[in-house]
Amino acid sequence: MFNYSKRNLIIISFISSIVILVFINYILKNFNENQKKKENFNLIQKTNQIISNTNVNKDEEKNKECEKEQIVKNQYNKNNWRILIPKINLDAPILEGTNKENLRRGVGHFKQTDKWDGNVCLAAHNRGYKYNFFQEIKRLEIGDTIEYHNKKRIRTYSVTWKGKIKETDLSYLRYTNDNKLTLITCAENMPEYRLCIQAYEIKI
Q: Which residue from 31, 67, 138, 171 has the least number of CB within 10 angstroms?
């Protein structure tokens, strides 16, 4: 009788151990699944927050960009300062200075040159930006006309020279007695050079 009871106890203990192990495994499995769900939820929350912040930042940047562009348009309308080149369908605003901010939004005027008399020098991008106003000036040929507007004054020029100059060559910005328009932009695949076009006033 004693042996039988001992065997039963061993069997019961074994079964109990198995049940306990299964229960513990079940608890641990549920715990791990809940942790993963919690981590995934937190990850989703963080991702959504990042996306939300990114969208807010983009909206803010877009609004700032629109405000800056409106400022340029207001200046453009107020001063009526622009350049027109019929051959390439260009009608672009001109801004004072050739800094990055101005060249992103219009044609830049070299501050060291006059705005009306003598050699008026302008620069603009030709690729890689939202506005590439001088993208097509490479198509200009001798004799093509350019209109320059400053306030209520209009002057028409005729292209007389086209070529490449060294980036460091500032001689083309010098003042001249004759009224001349100088356009400068990057030379394609030639970082040390600039494409330069010069046009003289057509005197009526």
A: 171
Q: Are residues 74 and 99 in the same domain?
A: no
* pLDDT tens, position by position, 98-111: 999 999 999 999 99
Section 21-38 average pLDDT:
74
- Position 25 scores a pLDDT of 77
CATH of the domain at 146: 2.40.260.10
* pLDDT confidence tier of residue 144, bands split at 50, 70 and 90: very high
5 lies in which domain range? Answer: 1-79
Q: Are both 65 and 91 inside the same structural domain?
A: no
At 135, the amino acid letter reads Q
The answer to whether residues 96 and 150 belong to one domain is: yes
Which tokens belong to 178? 């004759």
Burial class from Cβ neighbours inside 10 Å (0-12, 13-18, 19+) for residue 93 reads buried
Taking CB atoms within 8 Å and a gap of at least 24, the contacts of 119-122 are 119/173, 119/174, 119/175, 119/176, 119/180, 119/181, 119/182, 120/148, 120/179, 120/180, 120/181, 120/182, 121/172, 121/173, 121/181, 121/182, 121/184, 122/83, 122/94, 122/181, 122/182, 122/183, 122/184
Which of 50, 79, 108 represents a domain boundary (last residue)? 79
